[in-house]
Predict the 3D structure of the following.
Amino acid sequence: MKLIILLMKYFKYLINYIFSILYDIYHFFFGDLRNRIQNPSFYKKSKFYPNYLKRGNMSQGIKSLAEKYCLGKGVDVGASNWPISGSRVIENKKEENAYIIKEQDNSLDFVFSSHCLEHLDKWQDALKEWYRVLKHEGVLVLYLPHPSCEMWLPEVNKYHKWSPEPKVIEEFLSKELKMKIKEISYLPDGYLSFVVIAEKV
C-alpha cells in the first residue's frame, strides 16, 4: 500500500514536470508571437527583460510608498485596470484625460500617475494641469520608467513619446512649478523605474 502511495506521488510530480516543459515550449514559440511579428525591434530588446515588466501594473512597484502619500481625495492618471486605492481613475477620453482634469483648482489631496507621462507629447502641459488641481500641500506622486531600461526608450517602444529622466522631472517640478521635492530616486528599482514625490507649496 505504501509503495502504491509513493508511486502515485512521484507520478504526480512527473505529470507536473511534463506540463511545465510543455508550457515552456509553448511560451518559447508562441508567448511573444505578437511582438515578434508586429514589432521585432521591441522584441529584440525586451526579450532580455523579465516578463513582469511587460504585463502592465507597474504601480505595484510603488504601492506601499504611494499608500503613505495618497490620502484623502485624489486621482490616478492612466491607471488602466490597476488604480491606486481610494483614487478616481482618469483615462484617455475626449471629455477628460491627462491634459483636462474635471476638478476645481486647489481641490485634490493627491495626484498619482504610474507609467503614463512617457506616453504624452506635451508632458509639461499635463504636469501643469495636475499641479492646478492640487491643494496647498497636496502631493504629486510620479512613477516612471527609468531611461536605463532599453525596451522603454522611444526608439524601441513605439508607444513612448519620450524618455523621462529623474533630473529633468525634478528640475521642472521644483523650478517651473515651484514644488517641494519630498522624495526622488535617481537609480532604477526592481521594476526598472524611478519615483518622484513633490508637494505643492
Remarks:
- Helices lie at 2-31, 33-38, 40-46, 63-69, 123-133, 166-176.
